[in-house]
Write a structure and sequence with these properties.
α3 (about 95-100) links the parallel β6 and β7. α4 (about 115-150) runs parallel beside α7 (about 235-275), α11 (about 405-420) crosses α12 and α15 crosses α16 (about 495-505). The strands form 4 sheets. A 5-stranded mixed beta sheet has the order 2-7-6-5-4. Strands 9-8-12-11-10 form a 5-stranded antiparallel beta sheet, with helices on one face. It has 4 domains: about 5-125, 3-Layer(aba) Sandwich (Udp-n-acetylmuramoylalanyl-d-glutamate--2,6- Diaminopimelate Ligase, Chain: A, domain 1), CATH 3.40.1390; about 150-250, Beta-Lactamase (2-Layer Sandwich), CATH 3.30.450; about 300-435, Reverse transcriptase/Diguanylate cyclase domain (Alpha-Beta Plaits), CATH 3.30.70.270; about 445-530, Arc Repressor Mutant, subunit A. The chain has helices at about 5-10, 60-75, 95-100, 115-150, 155-165, 185-190, 235-275, 285-290, 315-330, 360-370, 405-420, 430-435, 445-460, 460-475, 480-490, 495-505, 515-530; strands at about 5, 20, 30, 30-35, 50-55, 80, 105-110, 170, 175-180, 200-205, 210-215, 220-230, 300-310, 340-345, 350-355, 390-395, 425-430. The protein is α+β, with helices and mostly antiparallel strands and about 525 residues long. It has 17 helices and 17 strands. The longest helix has about 40 residues, at about 235-275. Pfam families: HTH_30, PucR.
């Protein structure tokens, strides 16, 4: 039970009685009803209790009645109802005076009705009130659910406050008041700031009871409060749970707003980076915007990762879909999440700026990408987006002004890999930087150099020549380690050593001489270029 004495006096049959003293106590809260049948009732009374009595225990001692009224008031009783006609015909003046003095309501109970009649009337009224309150609560719950499932709202906070029918405020952790439908000014609302980051209640300066819920993101990081003004001190636990649900939805909404803001800022920053790469603006303009949005763009060593679709993929919609899939992998895949500081989507591919502290981290990325995006993935089982892409990695850079250089290295790696017909899903610019250096050399110069050096091999039978060239390529690829070359060829290392000895004799070169090895590397590199050149 929860009502004021004034509300209780409006309920039949108690409404047939009269308030004869203590009118200033009409706002006392009634929580239960009891019958006074013992001399020491004041020792057993509960806070908010209304006591009914025939005054039998104090009929011969009115002065004790006045003292009893004082005790009941101090114990927190709500009111005293006295039924006249049996032992008293009127309530003694001393009791009425004491009740008026301390503001303790004295009710003259209606004679025709028993105590149980009046108790039942109060209980029925409380039951009806509780049922109605629960009905309204269910309606609010349904409205809140429809609101939550209804998509984005232009006036999110206003609509939510209207559904809850409750003044509310939303305050960020930096004391910014995002919304308030309360009568209190911001300064008054924030007077006791900072607040403890857990659900609690407090009183405003005007006496209003406020319920505060901390707002946390998906990482359980506290970022503000939802404040609800309680309509009455007796609001139920169910109502509190409804407000707690509303606070959770507010937290989710704020997180969505933050994600949307970050997406907008990232999109704008990506556009500025693209303008810089097109030489429309300076790098200072890009960095200035990054600082404004509190992004530490390229403030530490970084590299560029250039992702392009397979050449066979010509449909623009398919290209966009694949590149979008790569972006999502960098956002959500456990091994890639948070790795790319910024992603710039262009027509030809996707440029990712990836912070890296040292070369070992570059190597880790180069080895991680083919593992995650295997070209052998079964399309029916859900082929990763990266299975349709090539990845090109620039050298490590230490200054933002080197961004354009890193981008050009990615493009050069892509062009050189195409010219060399490299069948690699991931190409690190460092691995083909040497080849990129000679891409502008005239074709006839390349042909003359390689022909002069490799002619003795070409004169051998085709099968033997191919075996020699393969041995040379693997030997150079593994930096002169015969054991590693032997593993790739599935032969014994002595076999490789013997072949190299015979090749050296055939070409008149010492394969332990650095200058001779460099000549061979150039000759084989030029051969790769010449194989890709169209016939004129």
């Amino acid at each position: 039970m929860y009502m004021t004495v004034e509300e209780a006096l409006s309920i039949y049959p108690l409404s047939e009685g009269n308030l004869v003293a203590g009118k200033t106590g009409l706002r006392r809260i009634v929580k239960s009803v009891n019958v006074m049948d013992a001399p020491d009732i004041a020792d057993w009374v509960h806070e908010g209790e209304v006591l009914f009595t025939t005054a039998y225990l104090i009929k011969d001692h009115p002065e004790e009645g006045a003292a009893l009224v004082g005790k009941l008031a101090r114990k927190g009783a709500a009111a005293l109802g006295i039924k006249l006609g049996r032992f008293w015909t009127e309530i003694p003046e001393t009791i009425l005076q004491e009740a008026d003095r301390i503001g303790f309501p004295i009710i003259e109970l209606p004679y025709p009705f028993t105590f149980s009649d009046q108790m039942n009337g109060l209980f029925r009224a409380e039951l009806n009130q509780t049922t109605l309150a629960l009905k309204h609560l269910v309606e609010k719950q349904q409205a809140l659910l429809r609101f939550a499932l209804g998509g984005k709202k232009l006036n999110f906070f206003e609509e939510l406050a209207s559904i809850l029918d409750c003044p509310m405020a939303v305050i960020r952790s930096d004391k910014r008041v995002l919304f308030s439908s309360m009568a209190a000014e911001e300064s008054e609302l924030l007077k006791t700031w900072p607040w403890k980051p857990h659900p609690h209640t407090r009183r405003s300066e005007t006496g209003q009871r406020l319920l505060l819920f901390p707002l946390a993101d998906k990482h359980q990081q506290w970022n503000g409060f939802a404040v609800f003004q309680r309509q009455a001190d007796g609001a139920t636990k169910e109502e509190e749970r409804l407000l707690a649900q509303a606070a959770e939805w507010i937290a989710y909404h704020l997180e969505e707003l933050e994600v949307s803001r970050k997406d907008h800022d990232d999109h704008q920053l990506a556009w500025l980076v693209q303008c810089y790469l097109n030489r429309d603006i300076s790098i200072e303009a890009v960095l200035g915007y990054a600082r404004d949005m509190q992004t530490n763009l390229m403030e530490e060593p970084f590299l560029c990762l250039w992702t392009t679709p397979l050449p066979s993929m010509t449909d623009p919609a398919s290209v966009r879909s694949v590149l979008r899939g790569i972006r999502q992998e960098f956002q959500y895949h456990p091994s890639l999440k948070g790795m790319a500081q910024l992603q710039v989507e262009m027509e030809e591919g996707l440029l990712s700026i990836v912070p890296c502290q040292n070369v070992s981290e570059v190597q880790r990325l180069a080895s991680l990408l083919p593992q995650l995006f295997s070209s052998q993935a079964d399309e029916q089982a859900g082929k990763p987006a990266g299975s349709y892409c090539y990845f090109y990695i620039s050298n490590l850079k230490h200054k933002p002004v080197q961004l354009a250089e890193a981008y050009q290295e990615c493009l050069s790696a892509a062009d050189t890999a195409r010219r060399l017909n490299l069948n690699r899903r991931v190409v690190d610019y460092r691995s083909i930087e040497f080849a990129d250096l000679f891409t502008g050399l005239p074709v006839n110069k390349m042909r003359q150099f390689s022909a002069r050096l490799l002619a003795p091999i070409w004169e051998r039978p085709p099968e033997a020549a191919e075996e020699m060239l393969t041995t040379l390529r693997l030997y150079l690829h593994h930096n002169g380690q015969t054991a590693e070359a032997a593993k790739d060829m599935f032969v014994h290392r002595n076999t490789v050593a013997y072949r190299l000895e015979k090749i050296g004799e055939l070409l008149g070169l010492d394969l332990r001489n650095y200058e001779h090895l460099l000549k061979l590397k150039l000759a084989l590199l030029f051969e790769d270029f010449l194989e890709r050149e169209p016939v004129s």
